[in-house]
Amino acid sequence: MRLGILGSGSGSNMQAILDAIDAGTLDAEIALVLSDNPGAFILERAAKRGIPTAVIDCQGFKTKFPEEVQAATARQLHEAGVDIVCLAGFMRLVKQPLLDAFPDRILNIHPALLPAFPGVDAWKQALAAGATESGCTVHYVDAGMDTGPAVLQAKVPVLADDTPETLHARIQVEEHRLYPEAIRVVAEKLGV
Predict the structure, then answer these.
(1) Are strands 53-55 and 29-35 parallel, antiparallel or unpaired?
(2) In the prediction, which pLDDT does 116 show?
(3) Mean pLDDT in residue range 62-79
(4) Omega within 30 of 0 (cis) for the link into 115
(5) Is 94 annotated as a binding-site member?
(6) Where in the chain are the domains?
(7) What is the third-level CATH fold of 2-190?
(8) Quick one: which of 75, 106, 111, 126 is 20 to 30 A from 6 by CA?
(9) What's the pLDDT score for residue 63?
């Protein structure tokens, strides 16, 4: 199975996927890594492993992911033979035509137990709401923000002395375990 990764930051979830591949627990290869941030560490991580990378030019938009750019991104992913697209800290909303190009083949990981706390800084939202548990969700991407059906979830307790940093760190441990597992589940369903 060939994976395409879209990320905007450090790529710690991509690293977890690579670690699972290296350990033999995920039968996959990362075919292409794309980022909308030319300085993102995810590109450096991929390049060190010899994985092809490219920067997505969002035409100067800070948050918008223009339709024609999504179409070009879909073409790049198809040309790389990608079976499943994994968003790993990608900070733009994916919509058509990218969704149409990879129906039920785009996954995202979110640091909350969706549908609770969608959007940015979910761990801060959980603390502000007084939640007693949080966690992470790997879900299919649809046209909404963190609204697609869940593939897998993992829970972590919210401790009385948690800060945003401590809760986020505990959630990230589960993210790194859960994402490769969810990719296996989806690949099995798709037969790839």
Answers:
(1) parallel
(2) 97
(3) 95
(4) yes
(5) yes
(6) 2-190
(7) Rossmann fold (3.40.50)
(8) 126
(9) 86
